[in-house]
Design a protein that fits this description.
Blueprint lengths: L1 H27 L8 E6 L3 E2 L7 E2 L4 E8 L2 E9 L18 E7 L1 H4 L9 H9 L2 E5 L7 H14 L4 E6 L11 E3 L3 E4 L11 E4 L6 H9 L6 H21 L5 H17 L4 E5 L12 H17 L5 E4 L19 H14 L2 H6 L4
Helix pairs in contact: 4-7, 7-8
Length: 357
Amino acid sequence: MNKNLSKIFLTTFSILIPILGFDFFLKLINYPSRNSVIMLLSGGRFNSQEMGIRHYSRNSELRQTAIYDGEIEYDYKFETDENGFRITHRCDIRNPKSVIAITGDSFTEGQGSSIVWVSKIQNKLCKNKIKTFNTAMAGYSIIGMRKSLDYAKNSLGASHSIVAITTGDILRSHAEMISNEVCSVYASRTNKCGDSATWWHFPSNLYGEELINYSKTKFKYGLKEVYKNAKFDIKNKIRSWENKNPKNKNLYLNTKAMNHISSIYGPKKTLLIIIPTKLDIGLENKPNKKKKFSKNLNIFLKKINNDIEVYDLRSCPLTKNHFYKKDGHPNESGQKLIGECAYGVLDIKKFLSVSNL
């Protein structure tokens, strides 16, 4: 009996030693290196608890930072209103003629920028005594946008809606968000910080090198991360295959969500704006991805209500100088130019004429 136990022990020991040694070596050389992007948030939280839609801490000043490969890509502050939405334009109207709800993803929330493209339109609406709420949130699919517009309709009295999408939103799956003292994170099987898209909460007094050093404490290396990344790659390949299917589930659900928006607001009281990305203007050399997104966009547009006014801004003359180098978002000059392009083509007067104003 003792001999058998000894054999089992020796066998287990001989297997574990090389595994642990290899794991130690990977951590020593900081592998896998893809753990080089860290999102940081201070001053509040980012979740979909309580309200049932994504929102930040209410009436707060937050700071968001993105660190790529040990360098700060952007670091900016923004304020939120009583609903937890980012304030992208201040408009003090006691008795507005009407309320317009705006939604979108991180491009319309203004991630990475103190300037947000939609504020130019909000300013014009404010001068016409129209109150607006920008409910856009990072990571939103059209399903998430639909939920935020339901909230705006039922709780804020919105009569019109402006939906701003990127071509990738059409295939994006919906995810709830949770938060705790350590982070704000996409809900997942584990709900652990770092296991899915994560905004790490950090002390607001950190800047420069101190901030970069803090971000490095969130990097994860070793065999466990290799395994997680392998699973992630497999899931991405499966998702890529699913996206090529014209009966793609996310395409169907996002199309259904867009039609729901037009049904509760009315198709003529709903504007759809297509925001340009790096992929759209040729800054990403991924022709197959671009072709796939374009194909699915055409399917999407054919299946939504024909009375929805669509404004395609992908011809806006953006260049690489209008985007962050490593991050995919527009910088402040990019946000400003998108705002000018939108302002130049949107027929706000026509939009407002179809109303109870």
